Amino acid sequence: MATVTTQPSIAGFRPNAVSTRAFTGSSGGLTTRVFPGSARRNSLRVQAKGEWLPGLASPGYLNGSLPGDNGFDPLGLAEDPENLKWFVQAELQNGRWAMLGVAGMLIPEVLTKAGLIDVPEWYEAGKAEYFASSSTLFIIEFILFHYVEIRRWQDIKNPGSVNQDPIFKQYSLPPNEVGYPGGIFNPLNFAPSLSAKEKEIANGRLAMLAFLGFLVQHNVTGKGAFDNLLQHLSDPWHNTIIQTFQG
User: Fold this and answer.
1) What is the mean pLDDT of residues 114-118?
2) DSSP secondary structure letter of residue 123
3) Whose CB among 3, 5, 98, 195 lies 3.0–4.6 Å from 11's, allowing a Cys bridge?
4) Helical ranges in 59-171 per DSSP H
5) What is the Cα–Cα distance from 125 to 120, expressed in whole angstroms?
């Protein structure tokens, strides 16, 4: 006899005490594990992943094994395994940069409004005076980012190949999963668990949307996100996106 139980996230029965192995398979976003037990009773666990559109089957190449995989690929961009490997890392890195960027845009604006610091708005930061001209800074950043991105690409193609510093060879990173280098890049020693990866990718996606929203808001209103929020809170019924577009 087999019992099947489904819930939105995880559901199932405790495996039989005499079970020694499990068989797994997947279909349409569902992962099924059958634990063989005694001749009289087996248990069956069904684990469901979220779907970006309820009722729409996930592509076969997105089987729910990746963090944040909800079967969203309407253009089929990740059908090629090599492309999928690259897109996973590209989304992870862009999400991390977006989280830093959104924090760097929002926090200084809030602290300046609170009178704790005095710095220009993020959209005015390029006009400020620095230790070098903007063109010089751009060239420096381009060279540094080019070097880092080449080494990251090498690590994707051949994991672990760039763990040792090419100049200061006494420094190296421990062997880890691609995208989660550890060592000095993980000072708080967080474990890259599946739960942590899911949270990071979800927050990274949210940050990428927030960054795009900040840009659109500024282009439409000429203000920063915190200014827009304060303006809305001052008169929530009249300072909305509807009035903004009407004006």
Assistant:
1) 92
2) G
3) 5
4) 81-113, 134-157
5) 6
**DSSP sequence for 194-233:** HHHHHHHHHHHHHHHHHHHHHHHHHHHHSS-HHHHHHHHH
Q: Mean per-residue pLDDT for 33-47?
A: 41
Residue (of 244, 238, 247) closest to 216 by Cα position? 244
Residue 35: CB atoms within 10 A of its CB come to: 19
* 62 touches 73 (CB < 8 A): yes
Which residues fall within 8 angstroms of residue 219, CB to CB, at 6 or more apart?
none
| DSSP 3-state of 31 | strand
pLDDT at 175: 84
In this predicted model, what pLDDT tens digit does every residue of 119-128 receive, in sequence order?
A: 999 999 888 8
Cβ–Cβ < 8 Å for 64, 58: yes
43-48 sheet: strands from edge to edge: 10-11, 43-48, 30-35, 23-27
